[in-house]
Amino acid sequence: MRLWLGLRIHQHHNLPKQGPAIIVANHNSHMDVFALLSLYSPLQQRQIHPVAAADYFLSNKWMAWFALNILNIIPVTRQNAGQGNPLQDCEEALRKNKILILFPEGSRGEPGKMQPLKSGLWYLSAAMPTVPIIPVWLQGTEKIMAKGNRIPLPLFIDVNIGTPMYYQPDKEQFKTNLLNNLLALRPQYTKKDS
Q: What is the mean pLDDT of the chain?
């Protein structure tokens, strides 16, 4: 990532150096996870686990191998009809002082716009209320690897890292605060910049 693309990191001091911690970001491209992983050294990346949909990333053996062995994902079943706690592996990773990467929208959305946030992060935070949640806004990944592109374009990615937030008992208030924290990190451009 750092050789091929330009990464402009803002407020790098907010990035957790060690776990347990949860990094949450907007989701516009498959490049999002690579941008977030590249914030850490290759040695540190073994402690970082993107949380990803099992039905997508484990759908064929080649993608499953790459997702599990290279990306180091924790697969989560999205439709979990009474099959236990779908976030159990995430909780276990946090207990082992790992850092999770989670996209609270659930799937990729339109660039610059947020989809409604899913409730999974709130449930995870309720189980691990002292774990900090660090909001991150990614800008530019949608141009580098837009839907349908197979080769990333060499363009800049802006990574804006916010201050940690924590569990709140009211689920809707938690989701509203998280959304506001993410949107506050969007780069603001003047008419001259556009």
A: 83
Q: Which residue has the tokens 């999974």?
A: 120
Angstrom CA distances, 129 to 29, 74, 97, 124, 125, stand at: 29, 20, 14, 8, 5
For residue 33, give the H/E element and its range: helix 31-37
- What is the rounded distance in angstroms from the CA atom of residue 35 to the CA atom of residue 155? 12
Beta bridge partners of 157: 7
Q: What is the mean pLDDT of residues 175-191?
A: 81
**Separation of CA 22 from chain center:** 8
pLDDT at 150: 63
The pTM of this model reads: 0.86
Mean pLDDT for the stretch of residues 137-142: 84
CB atoms within 10 A of CB 170: 10
What are 73's two structure tokens? 């994902």
